[in-house]
Design goal:
732 residues; alpha+beta; 8-stranded mixed sheet; 5-stranded antiparallel sheet; 12 helices; 39 strands; 17% helix
């Protein structure tokens, strides 16, 4: 089932991968360099697009006087803010549209995006001896990925849900989908305008028609079908009005729905009385007896609960605590005979246990796969086989084990890159998708009985691989920590310190920055530049210790790591501050905004995409209270000190020569409120001392944080972003 851990969905979208894995490079001639003809913005124009100073607020927080000169820009519904936004968008369009080669750049980017992507399939047994294979794929000019089904492993794809046809402008999206075990039905979530506010729908796989059931408020829903397909367990959020305003984004709970009945009569199964930011996800054993709820409590802690659905009497409906009140992550894989727990408890690089349903307390757990030097990133239990996904130097390797945990050797990958594994619970076949900096996504099938590997699907068959070099370099951070970075460059790039270079970073939420097929990176390399992916603390590439070293009170380590990478690129004469750009999205947008205020002289230009910037007030908007375990709570005096200490909005200084910056946001962003980009852009425009370095903001309509964005909007967005960087960095 195509399931993304709910905690990652709370913040991360397509920007969370470190690279926009939507395309690569084709063979169209490179456009001409956009010469320096973009209009310079004079001071009078700047003043005309600023909000009047009456919006300024000064307050004392934990004994500290905090200036907030653009508080009024938080209210996106006010006519004044709407007018300000329109003026800013007009100014940004005037600047970006003036590049003479913009149309050529747009055509090239469209070609890259149209390479597409494909996922490894979910395998269901439709009838005895036959299976159905469900997978998402996007290629060509499709606006959205399509959900396909194959009625046998080598059969043709059949369209099940064409997301591009859900709306005229392609802004409706499939957020998630869960087939039944027999592959007869699929529960799927649809949202509009990138909002991720899903409505649960049920599609009949044979007829392609949807059943009448509609369940709203199923944002990031997790679904577990009961055998027989007459009912399922699922998660949903409260109906607006049933909780205080704003809290409808929280309080996710588990309900049971009987197909064909009114969702208002669905029975609450789990979640009453729990913390509002707890996020449950579901699994059910194939025989339908064992229901398991994993409760995600941030990005460093989760809990597991078990219920025997066949229990009678006093044990009926009883929840058994399997893993609770422990500062560690636990992920459950549910099978008929036992469950498997993938955890970093006592093992920061993770290990795997087998748990008997009848004796699920920790003293009876059996360790199957011990902690290793590489991070055990994920586990697939397929019949009598276990396929483990490891991270070695932030790249994937695969290893097979038997059901007792004995190693059966490696599954070879096409090269250094990233892979994810799937497979049926009762079969002898595994699937893995693979992509790298130079390889579009491909899916391979592994016969676990014979070890035979064959290509199952791919995108970009006509893609001609770029001639690129990928070098793993290390920088030394402020505290002596070695920080890896992948340097992606063309052949024979001179080390004269003048090559336009872009440094991308994320560093947070236990998210792994592994090799990705990136349109941004390959476009930059094609035009003679260098793209660098950093592996910063706060991610999970080297285990939980690496994650914790970049969260809460340790967040400054992330910024120090990124700055060290920039300094190393300059020291190695790959680039210099006049040709160095920085980029990142979401938590990475916070990163770029912060380092731009901490070391403005080190960079020439930056992209801050759907960013957080006001860390003093971030918890007041959208779903941000869910991020307190990662960032901290500004209502807490000690944590406020940390947050205020790096909050980029509060560290903009008048009269400073800042890098040219492009801040992007979207009206329907359900995760990071657009107020962050608005306030930061306004404050930097006010403070900027360099008249040749514009501070721009781009506010997208009918779009969200990134997930579900149609390719037409992605092409426009990347054309603006890359045109801005190319112009400011002097890319030829």
């Amino acid at each position: 089932m195509r399931f993304i851990r709910p905690t990652s969905m709370l913040l991360l979208g397509m920007y969370g991968t470190g690279a926009l894995v939507l395309g690569a490079c084709g063979g169209e001639p490179a456009p001409a360099h956009p010469e320096a003809i973009a209009p310079k913005t004079d001071a009078s124009t700047e003043r005309n697009t600023r909000l009047p100073k009456p919006g300024s607020v000064t307050e004392t927080l934990h004994g500290v006087t905090v200036e907030d000169p653009f508080r009024a820009l938080e209210n996106g519904d006010s006519p004044e803010v709407k007018a300000w936004t329109d003026q800013q968008n007009a100014k940004t369009r005037q600047y970006l549209d003036a590049f003479p080669s913009r149309d050529a750049l747009k055509r090239e980017i469209a070609e890259l995006i149209h390479v597409g992507s494909v996922d490894a399939p979910y395998v269901a047994a439709a009838i005895p001896g036959e299976r159905r294979y469900f997978h998402m794929k996007r290629e060509g000019e499709q606006n959205q990925p399509t959900l396909y089904v194959r009625d046998k492993v080598g059969g043709p794809d059949r369209v099940l849900i064409d997301a591009s046809a859900l709306s005229a402008d392609g802004t409706n999206a499939i957020d998630w989908w869960y087939p039944t075990r027999d592959g007869k039905f699929v529960a799927w979530g649809m949202s509009e305008n990138g909002s991720e506010e899903s409505t649960l729908i049920i599609r009949d796989v044979k007829t392609g028609k949807d059943l009448p059931d509609r369940i709203p408020y199923t944002r990031y829903s997790s679904v577990a079908w009961v055998p027989g397909n007459k009912a399922f367990y699922y998660t949903r959020h409260p109906e607006p009005g049933s909780v205080p305003p704003g809290d409808e984004k929280y309080y996710s709970k588990v309900f049971k729905h009987v197909v064909g009945t009114d969702p208002k009569t669905d029975v609450l199964i789990f979640g009453a009385g729990r913390d509002k930011t707890d996020t449950p996800s579901l699994s059910i054993s194939p025989n339908g007896r064992w229901l398991v709820v994993t409760v995600h409590q941030g990005w460093a802690k989760s809990e597991v609960y078990l219920q025997d659905l066949e229990a009678k009497g006093k044990n009926a409906g009883k929840w058994v605590e399997v893993a609770v009140k422990t500062e560690a992550l636990f992920d459950a894989i549910v099978r008929d005979d036992r469950m498997y727990i993938h955890t970093n408890d006592g093992a920061p690089r993770y290990r795997l246990f087998a748990v008997d349903y009848k004796t699920p307390d920790r003293t009876h757990w059996k360790e199957l796969i011990v902690e290793a030097p590489d991070v055990l990133d994920g586990v697939a239990v397929i019949g009598k086989h276990i396929v483990a996904t490891y991270l070695h130097n932030a790249s994937t390797r695969l290893e097979r084990f038997d059901i007792s945990g004995k190693s059966k050797g490696a599954i070879p990958l096409p090269g250094i890159g990233t892979a994810q594994v799937s497979g049926p619970y009762d079969g002898d076949e595994a699937f893995f998708n693979f992509y790298s900096y130079a390889t579009p996504t491909q899916v391979s099938r592994v016969d676990l009985k014979t070890n035979k590997i064959e290509l199952w699907d791919r995108v970009g068959e006509k893609f001609a691989s770029e001639k690129i070099n990928v070098t793993l370099m290390h920088a030394t951070s402020k505290d002596g920590t070695k920080v890896p970075m992948f340097v992606v460059a063309g052949e024979n790039v001179p080390k004269n310190g003048e090559t336009p270079t872009v440094l991308w970073g994320y560093g947070g939420f236990n998210i792994n920055m592994t090799p990705a097929f990136s349109a941004r990176a390959l476009l930059t390399v094609r035009h003679g530049g260098v793209w660098v992916f950093t592996v910063l603390r706060g991610g999970g590439e080297f285990g939980e210790d690496w994650h914790k070293a970049g969260m809460l009170a340790n967040k400054q380590n992330v910024f120090d790591d990124f700055i060290a990478c920039a300094e190393e690129l300059v020291a190695q004469k790959i680039t210099n501050p006049a040709h160095l750009g920085i980029a990142g999205g979401s938590n990475g947008g916070l990163l770029t905004a912060t380092v731009a205020t901490q070391r403005p002289e080190l960079y020439r230009a930056g992209l801050s995409l759907v960013p957080l910037t006001d860390m003093v007030r971030y918890t007041h908007y959208r779903i941000a209270q869910a991020w307190i375990p990662e960032y901290g709570d500004p209502a807490n005096a000690d944590q406020f000190k940390v947050l205020y200490g790096y909050s980029p909005y509060h560290h903009v200084k008048d009269g400073t020569r800042y890098p040219a910056m492009l801040f992007t946001t979207a009206e329907s962003d359900a995760r990071v409120d657009p107020m962050h980009a608005r306030k930061m852009a306004a404050r930097m425009q006010e403070a900027q001392a360099a008249s040749d370095r514009p501070i721009l903001v781009r506010v997208e309509s009918k779009a969200g944080h990134g997930a579900g964005k149609p390719t037409t909007k992605v092409v426009e967005e990347l054309t603006d972003e890359m045109g801005f960087l190319f112009h400011e960095l002097g890319v030829k």
